[in-house]
């Protein structure tokens, strides 16, 4: 029997603990529980959505891989005796899976890959990592361990006694693996018919054995070579398929394996979606929808995107960051209790307590709103809770409508800006989104230049863009866009009319050109050319151009109406998370800077009033290491230990300074000496100094820059 | 060609054997005379060497199987420890009859092996026959314990049984000889197949629905293209099969008959050349090649493995890699000149010492400390870079991607030194 863990109590305990932590910080305890629950449910919802998105994104790749696996051992299935099959050397089918440099994401991809394969192709999957496979022996051990265990999983522990043979006692050689494979496949063949039906519906008679090398780059050449040579000798008995997980480029196969080995492989290339596209999809589906009540502020989004683009390319880390934002928002913002679906939010507004109302009154955006009202209303808002609640409900509704409109108009604007040369407002919709969140986009230079460029678009582009915009507005849920759609459609019909007219015009111009060709006289030619030029200049604004201006102006008006930055909206604090500095502190740790701060300004971490210093001076109450550190900052590359000790003792003795004349004596107190030595060795441990042999009694500084 | 003759074996068997090992008759007859008759003691150890696919393994296997001599055939790559090797030999000796029982008899050292070997010979009643132990890829034996190779060489003496050990290897005996000296085996060289041999062997297995002459003409063309780059019999056979359907195409369509060699040559030759650049190098796999042939498409549509050289890296990783490249290929002295705004005057005279005139690229990357890498990084990135944990973790991830490599021990925490392992072309692509 198998021992079943019951993870639920543990999880509950963890959750309770988290809730407690949540509660501890805030003094108004009434809604923390609710906030915690909201946060949890929101995150779970987002997580589910995210998993779905990732599954869809990987589907194409996985389908290709499954097709490849099916194909790869079809000969093995059919056992053909055809001439070609007999003569051809059997190569090991190999899939080179290029996954990109975001190694942290690979874990998830491989996990879902093996899940998919297990469900559709084969139960025999081994996932090997380079760190476990330093030699061929370890590799074989790992491989056999995984394969034989997976067999146990499948057959629900029927025959324990036979499998209980410990790993060491199994001879880890290919022959025993083949024997195992034969016995396993035979067993499934001879099983009871009812069982057979279930198993054969999922896998075939002899499913391939898939070996996944997770990080191809890190494997040593010898191990790989040996493994490939060994398995190629048994490929006829054991239908093996290799999958190489490659982070850089498939060239690595050729640089790792010599030709004699790579000629044993039948390598096909599979490329996963690039991580940038992956991120765009995630942003599109998570941030640019009205589905989720929680929103990211401009700076926060920028921080997350920067970490992605500048540092790791890891979508997982981006999602983790997003999760952190959610938790931090619900944890630190008391009014976040209203950050939920509109219907729930309205209910919650009704049950707000007086304190919570006060919290809302304190919000800067709400204050701004109050100030803009007439005086009686101001008083009502600030004193009557019930009236306030009504207003809040209305404002929340406004906010919701704003979001709906915002997204549609943003997409529409993106249709225009993404096709302009040089992309003044960015190629990706996320850049446009950031620009719109930051401040009024129509006041920026980039917007102006992109409008100017839009005024020079040609007709066919303009028409397709308008059509796209119509589609966007039609599919959006906002009710206000009926007029917009009508207007846009009107534009489209006008364009079509123009086209018809242009057709006739073209005839005219063609005829005029024909005239031009007739005349061979140089004087006349010049004259007509001039005329033509003149007419063109005077006719500067054709109907098409007029219409184009109109369209662009209309889009401009839409932008001005709907793309107001979110922090101009009242009550935006409820749904927007804006503290970028907190996030940066958590995600972009700076160990050196933190160390410097700790040593230079110990108050920052110790929070002891006595340590509160006014900058330059060195307080003698600080820990010894801080004093030593500050003193060492004043030195050059080499530090004289004696001088250093003297300075240290002066600082430490400063407290007794006036009354004790012991300071005058040359002898340094033994305890101070010991303290000094200890502090210096601590600094050495932290890597600021090292002993030097250039001069006696000197140490060398390892950092540069003074105070 | 000398016919195989040996008094101990029937002539029919020998004739059959001769048909199976074309172009290796002299070696086989040599081996037969060394082996002698079944009950006779043979030479204790024989060392056979020759290039890849010169028929060593194949000849030994066919010889022993056709004559039904008791033998054990072990690949030393597959049984990578001495223990596995011993156990495999014993298991094969016991035959399939008692596998279950004997599979768990531990055999850890040579002493045990000799003892168990004697038992096995006795139980299988092989005392009056020569037992052959063939160790393929014998060069692996050198990596096992020091006593294994010498002991195998004089196994006959150690076990006092009628046994001959045959070692097969691609390298010469001189590279095997241990320092302490050992019993010298009888060495036998298998020369490479000549082009005539290859032609003969490859044409032997013609497809059933085409005549032998037709196939031989095809092999002739194939060898004309590939003989310059590849003499590996297995590989050639593989390529022959892959491309044969294309060769037959005009015949199948009725545009040419089987004798129309010139037309057929014109059809196949460019195709084979393309195959040389793609399939032979494993740029595209043979199954993809077959599918292409089947659909009659141009292989140009399918990009080979080396077409995908571009690696997308995060912003700072790019700069880190460039900085590492600069640190690896520029001498330390020039850093000040290249990366400082107010560097001193450059003394043109004797700035370049003589040995530095050779390109640094020929000398390969030099190691550099972490601090230098970061200093160069700060000077090549426009805006300020905070030395965050993310930057440091990127260096490690570049190491795991094998774009940088750590010099010295992995566990050295302070002052790690790195080398940049990417080429100039790669850096150019990154820097663009």
Automatic annotation (TrEMBL), chain A:
A GO CC annotation recorded here is: DNA replication preinitiation complex
**Keywords tagged on the record:** DNA replication, DNA-binding, Nucleus, Phosphoprotein
Q: Which GO terms describe its biological process?
A: DNA replication initiation
| Ranges for domain Origin recognition complex subunit 3 winged helix C-terminal | 592-704
InterPro entries with a match to the protein in the record: ORC3, ORC3_ins, ORC3_N, ORC_WH_C
The segment(s) forming the Origin recognition complex subunit 3 N-terminal domain are 1-338
Q: Which domain of life is it from?
A: Eukaryota
Localization, per the record, is:
Nucleus
GO MF, any single term: DNA replication origin binding
Pfam families linked to this entry: ORC3_ins (PF19675), ORC3_N (PF07034), WHD_ORC (PF18137)
Query: Locate the Origin recognition complex subunit 3 insertion domain: which residues?
Result: 349-580
Tell me if Iron-sulfur is a UniProt keyword of this record: no
Q: Which family does it belong to?
A: Belongs to the ORC3 family.
Task: Briefly state the protein's biological role.
Answer: Component of the origin recognition complex (ORC) that binds origins of replication. DNA-binding is ATP-dependent. The specific DNA sequences that define origins of replication have not been identified yet. ORC is required to assemble the pre-replication complex necessary to initiate DNA replication. Binds histone H3 and H4 trimethylation marks H3K9me3, H3K27me3 and H4K20me3.
Give the multimer and partner information. Answer: Component of ORC, a complex composed of at least 6 subunits: ORC1, ORC2, ORC3, ORC4, ORC5 and ORC6. ORC is regulated in a cell-cycle dependent manner. It is sequentially assembled at the exit from anaphase of mitosis and disassembled as cells enter S phase.
What name does UniProt use for this protein? Origin recognition complex subunit 3
From TrEMBL, chain B:
Gene Ontology terms, cellular component aspect? nuclear origin of replication recognition complex
Name of a matching Pfam family: ORC5_C
Biological process per Gene Ontology, one example term = DNA replication initiation
Q: Which residue windows are coiled coil? A: none
Q: Does the keyword Nucleus apply?
A: yes
Fetch the InterPro entries from UniProt.
AAA_16, ORC5, ORC5_C, ORC5_lid, P-loop_NTPase
Is Nucleus among this UniProt entry's keywords?
Answer: yes
**Main location, first listed in the record:** nucleus
Q: Where is the ORC5 lid domain?
A: 215-282
GO molecular function terms listed in the Swiss-Prot or TrEMBL record: ATP binding; DNA replication origin binding
Q: Which UniProt keywords apply?
A: ATP-binding, DNA replication, Nucleotide-binding, Nucleus
* TM ranges: none
Instruction: Spell out the subcellular localization from the entry.
Output: Nucleus
**Residues in domain Orc1-like AAA ATPase?**
21-166
Q: What PANTHER family does the annotation carry?
A: ORIGIN RECOGNITION COMPLEX SUBUNIT 5
What is the documented function of this protein?
Component of the origin recognition complex (ORC) that binds origins of replication. DNA-binding is ATP-dependent. The specific DNA sequences that define origins of replication have not been identified yet. ORC is required to assemble the pre-replication complex necessary to initiate DNA replication.
Q: How does it assemble?
A: Component of ORC, a complex composed of at least 6 subunits: ORC1, ORC2, ORC3, ORC4, ORC5 and ORC6. ORC is regulated in a cell-cycle dependent manner. It is sequentially assembled at the exit from anaphase of mitosis and disassembled as cells enter S phase.
The Swiss-Prot or TrEMBL record describes its family as follows: Belongs to the ORC5 family.
Full protein name:
Origin recognition complex subunit 5
Question: Which organism was this protein described from?
Answer: Aegotheles bennettii
Lineage runs: Eukaryota, Metazoa, Chordata, Craniata, Vertebrata
